[in-house]
Amino acid sequence: MANVLALLEHVPTSVPAETWSNQKNINGLIPVSFLIFGSWNLSPTHLAVGGNKESWSFVSSWSLSEDREGKRVRAAGPWTTMDRTRGHSVKLNDGHFIPVLGLGTYAPDAIPKSRAGEATKVAIEVGYRHIDAAYAYQNENEVGQGIREKIADGTVKREDIFYTTKLWGNFFRPELVKPALERSLKKLQLDYVDLFLIHMPCALKPGEELMPEDASGKLIFDTVDIRDTWEALEKCKDLGLAKSIGVSNFNHKQLEMILNKPGLKYKPTCNQVECHPYLNQSKLLEFCKSKDIVLVAYSALGSTRDPKWVDSDSPHLLEEPVLKAIAKNHHRSPAQVALRYQLQRGVVVLARSFGEKRIKENFQVFDFELTPEDMKAIDGLNRNFRYAKFDFVADHSYYPFLEEY
Q1: What is the rounded distance in angstroms from the CA atom of residue 140 to the CA atom of residue 184?
Q2: Could you tell me how far CA 397 lies from the centroid of its own chain?
Q3: Rounded CA gap, 268 and 247, in Å?
Q4: Among 57, 65, 254, 356, which residue's Cβ finds the most Cβ atoms within 10 Å?
Q5: pLDDT 10s digit of each residue in the chain, 405 long?
Q6: Which of 106, 128, 137, 278 is catalytic?
Q7: What is the pTM of this model?
């Protein structure tokens, strides 16, 4: 830290919202970049110190403040990992990096698919580099177009974007996995995805219908060993169609099925699950950390009242008085507090919004920090309440939510 403070002497007294770089050496790691948001002689300010001179892959995020005379500097904040092109990221167990904040692109049927493409473009312009989508969302054409337009206009390169898609239950039979991924890639007009997930552990009847039903309206299941499905995902990774592979909506026993699979080649890199202050997934998070699996949170801001998935009388997370009080103390929104809560727990978090104002607001979570008291208060909101219960597969033998975690 003394070396860092010594370098601060070289920073101009006022740096207006821009990057000041210094090629000094800190503990053998160069270059070092100071990212100053606002004026240096105001409190607080923000500093990112990095990294590996080949990859820029090790950077720390610090919240800084100084006394009014500018004599003392205090640094606080967790170490996070950043690389030059992806923003704040964490390393997956296969060596790739996943940005810790992503844009969720699911939308109810009432919202035009084109909105997902527009939101993708806005998010990339704002700074998002992680885009989360799925075959089942039925909007990969639009999301892919949004990504390609921002590549074409020079805003990003393909390697700057971390794109996730998911394998729906119709395609769990091993011979159907690769064609399903290739179908998504064709819609996206991309050569690979960064992350390919098993969307849920429950297999459905193969075919074109997302929700295949019998004559009585009951969903038709399929019987597939998810370990065989996983092996097919491993082959997609070997072929370069997916950089990383993982799962979604798996409980810890289903994760263990994969981890204990004979001949396992690649561990799941992540498990994407519903996670928010009303369902903080503390036990599943602890389990995943012990296995070097990243937990990714969806519905982190609560959920839409989509009647297909969510009860209309579900509580409104962002109206929670505790979140609103903490947000007021930090001059932030409840949504920003809910997102920051996940980041400080080591959770990768997805924020779903199609409005430009909200997309920008949700990205502004890296320049403040919740106190230990804030974190404890938010932890206390947990009630194991699940917005998306997946009742449509409740009778499936692999239904994941009967386990505690």
Answers
A1: 7
A2: 28
A3: 7
A4: 254
A5: 444 334 434 433 333 333 333 333 333 333 333 333 333 333 333 343 433 333 333 333 333 333 334 433 333 333 334 343 445 999 999 999 999 999 999 988 888 999 999 999 999 999 999 999 999 999 999 999 999 999 999 999 999 999 999 999 999 999 999 999 999 999 999 999 999 999 999 999 999 999 999 999 999 999 999 999 999 999 999 999 999 999 999 999 999 999 999 999 999 999 999 999 999 999 999 999 999 999 999 999 997 666 666 777 889 999 999 999 999 999 999 999 999 999 999 999 999 999 999 999 999 999 999 999 999 999 999 999 999 999 999 999 999 999 999
A6: 137
A7: 0.80
225-229 long-range contacts, CB within 8 A, separation 24+: 226/172, 226/198, 226/201, 226/254, 226/257, 226/258, 226/398, 227/257, 227/258, 227/261, 228/174, 229/167, 229/172, 229/173, 229/174, 229/177, 229/198, 229/203
One DSSP character per residue, 76-136 reads E----EEETTTEEEEE-TTS-EEESEEEE----TTS-THHHHHHHHHHHHHT--EEE--GG
Q: Is the peptide bond before 31 cis (omega within 30 degrees of 0)?
A: yes
Please say if 137 is a catalytic residue: yes
d(CA 182, CA 179): 5
SS3 breakdown of the chain: % helix, strand, coil, rounded to 5?
35, 20, 45
